[in-house]
Each structure stands twice: as structure tokens, then as C-alpha cells.
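Predicting holo structure, flavin mononucleotide bound.
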Amino acid sequence: MTLDVPQPQIDPAHFREVLGQYPTGVVVVTANDSAGEPIGMTVGSFTAVSLNPPLVAFLPAKTSSSWRALRESGDTFCINVLAAEQEDLCRAVAMRKTDKFAGFDLRRSPAGNPVIAGAVVWIDCLTEQIHSGGDHDIVVGRVLALDHGSPDQPLLFFRGGYGSFTPLSLASGDTDLLGHLGEIDLARPHMEELANRFDTEVTAIVLVKDEMVLAASAGRTDIAVAPTRVGQRLPFMPPIGSCFAAWGDSTLRETWVGSVADVLTDEQMGVLREVPDLVRDRGYAVALGHKVGAHLELVATRINAGDPEVPTSSMKEAFFEALDGYNQLEEPDDVELRSLSAPVFDVTGQVAYMLTMWGRWERVTSDEVCVRAEALCATAAAATQAMVDG
Ligand SMILES: Cc1cc2nc3c(=O)[nH]c(=O)nc-3n(C[C@H](O)[C@H](O)[C@H](O)COP(=O)(O)O)c2cc1C
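Done. C-alpha cells:
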């Protein structure tokens, strides 16, 4: 028995407008024509299909002359995921009928297809199936080879316009973080005063779930690895973030220590377990050594930026290397002071955020470290008071 379902009338313009609310990346499908010249088609309807076997797909209009040319060119093609800076190439390939790549650099993929210089990713495919889907075809390709190209952000297409990806900003992302921004704002004059006094940078760091987010900064230091630290995200993992563990409850302490249990020996774990009490007794956390500290920050910055050449596993390695420089029992004289951190409390007595005062390239004596630590703790106390008053 067949059910007589009425076919709804969908207005094509409305269909386009509604579906345009779904953002896509943009790829150029390339191949060679019979004369060996590069041909291509700009496509937004690209998707991964299957991992095993490795399949991808794109959906060309049946009426498209570019698709006809690709189809007639043979049974392999290459998917080029465009970078945000390649809007001009995207438009040229979509609009030109011939010589689509004039003025753009190409090289050959292993299957001999054109790979566009500057594309984020290329994927060589063998046409596996061509299904019909209304006025479009669904072309399924078996992946023959694939790799990263340029480390740039991909081009995005949304509501008829082009753009690029921005990680959730401080303003639009975490609501937990938003609450803290107002609290930190109350401390801004104190942060600036401290930064000016020691000609360095003072930052406010918030713990949001299992990440520490650098939410605000005052001043500047010559040991920074990036133009700004604001927005930097680091996992809540030793050696950093000891202030949150020191004044946190036992669960938070256990989370902090436990996050590196798989890479430390029992002896190292024993030392680490002492750190929260040590920091709490001192009233602040201290980090020494610019080389390991800068490496740790650089790895984190590159992972945050989505650099494909830096695997996330290198974060743990960088943290591990930096472990010795943090919160030593005895501070040697004449040190490379990387940072000092102290907690700021909210009206309920919980740590609201952590203030970090950064060091500078020159070495300092342990007396100078004490002067800085005292000044930082006074600033953190003033920030706590500002919250009570505010
Ligand atoms: C961002 C973007 C995404 C596109 N995505 C598709 C698509 O998924 N499928 C398709 O058939 N055409 C798509 N097009 C249109 C084709 O690139 C091309 O403009 C069209 O096929 C022109 O017709 P021709 O192939 O006959 O020259 C897209 C165009 C742009 C600019």
C-alpha cells in the first residue's frame, strides 16, 4: 500500500535563504582536461562520508558545465580546501569558463591533479559512485592521498558572504568567564599601577571548567611570546595554576595533581602533592626560567591557533619540562624570574581569578623576587577589597 502524501510546495528562494543559514567551507575540485590543462569547480557542498573505507563527497548541479568537464576528464579529482585569503580564487573559479587558474600557482598531487598553492588541505580521490539527488549529483570519492597545505584559517561561506573562523571570543563564549570580566575590571587600576611600577605585564587569569583563560592584561614585558596574551587558553595542569589548587577544595587539588599522574613517577607525584600547601603558606606561586616557560607558552599559543604542526600531546611534554622551574622549596639567588601569581578572592572567599606579574629578561636577586611578590600580594588584596566594596 502506498500512502498518498501531499507534496509541499517549497519556494526555491525561501529554500536557499533558509539553507544559507548553514555555514560551509569552500573547496575547489580540480582535475586535468584531455589537453592536460587544469580545470576546476568551486563547491560548498563538500563533506566527509566514511572513515573505513575513506570516502568524501560533493554535490554538483547536473546542469553545471564545470561538473561536466570534471566528469569527462577521468576518474580522479582533487579537493582543495580554500584558505580565508583565497576568496579571489574562489570567485575566479566559480565565474570563469576557461583558464580558471590563470594567475594562480598550482602544483601536481600524487595522482597528477592540480593542487592549489595556499590551500589549507588537499585530498586526491577516485570517483567511486555518482548518485542522483534531484537536480544535483552526489559524487562519492574514495580518498587516495591527502595532506595539510597552508596553516592558514579556512575560507567560510555563510548567508551569501565570505569570512573566516574565529574561536569563541571572550565576549560571546563562556558565560562563566563573562561573570569574571566585571570582577577583573574592578582591579584594572591596581593591575596598571603594578605593571607601571615594575615596567612589566600583569595579567588576570580565570579558571573556566578545566581550562585557564587569560582574560585581561595591563602593561607589557619583553619576555612575551605573542603580541597579546589575552584570550590565551591553557589546560588546568601542573605546573601552572597552582594558586587555584592551593586555595581550592580537595577535589580541585586532586584534579590538578591527577592531570599529570600518567607522566610522573611516584616520587615526582609526592613532591607535586606538597605544592598547593607550599604555595598557600607562601601566599603566592613562583615560576623561574625563561626558556622552558617561553616554550610552554609558545606551544600553547600555537595549539590555540590550530597549528597542525603542533600536536596537542606536545603540550604535556612542554608542561613536564617546565615542572622543575615552578614553586621550588628553596629559591636560588640571582634567578630568571618568569612569573609570580597570587589569588584574588570573591565575596564568598572563593578564588575569583589569579593575578600574574611577569618577569623580564634580566636576572634578579631573591630579595628582588620578595619585593615583587609583596607588591603583587598587596595588589591582589586590593583587588579582593575592590570586589567587597564594589
Ligand atoms: C561558495 C560557492 C559554493 C558553491 N557550491 C556549489 C555546489 O556545492 N554545487 C554546485 O553545483 N555549484 C556550486 N557553486 C557554483 C559553481 O561554483 C559554479 O559557479 C557554477 O557551477 C557555474 O556554472 P558552470 O559550472 O556551468 O560554469 C558554488 C559557488 C560558490 C561561489
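The pocket of flavin mononucleotide is lined by residues 26, 41-45, 59-61, 64-66, 90, 94, 97, 157 (CB under 6 Å).
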